[in-house]
Every structure is written in structure tokens, then in C-alpha cells.
Amino acid sequence: MENKRANCIIEVSVDGANGRYAVGIMNMRQALELPEMPSLSYTHPDPVKAAAGIVVSRKELAGLMACR
Whole-prediction pTM value? Predict the structure, then answer.
């Protein structure tokens, strides 16, 4: 059975000296395939939380994808 959460759309950002900058919009699976970089952050896959500006770490994102 395919994990439906893997297709949730999120925004990946990089944290820079002058704030966060969007890298791209992708699904959770694609985001977790990116190289591990401590400067990357990910919007929460729940659209309401993402709209509120809540971001999660790579570890948290992987945990959210594992939940069914």
C-alpha cells in the first residue's frame, strides 16, 4: 500500500543570513530525497499549519510521513 502522505505538497526553504528563501515546492517524498542540509526547512504538510508559517525539520518531516 502506497503512503498517501508521500504526495502531500510542501515548500522547502533554505535559512540564510537575511531570512528564509524558497527552494521549491514538492511532495514529501521528493523533499526527503534532497541532500541532508541543516539549513533546509520544510512547511508542515497540513495546509492550515503551513499557512500559519509552521515549519518542521527533516527528522520531523520523515516522522510525519511514517504516520498513517
Answer: 0.80
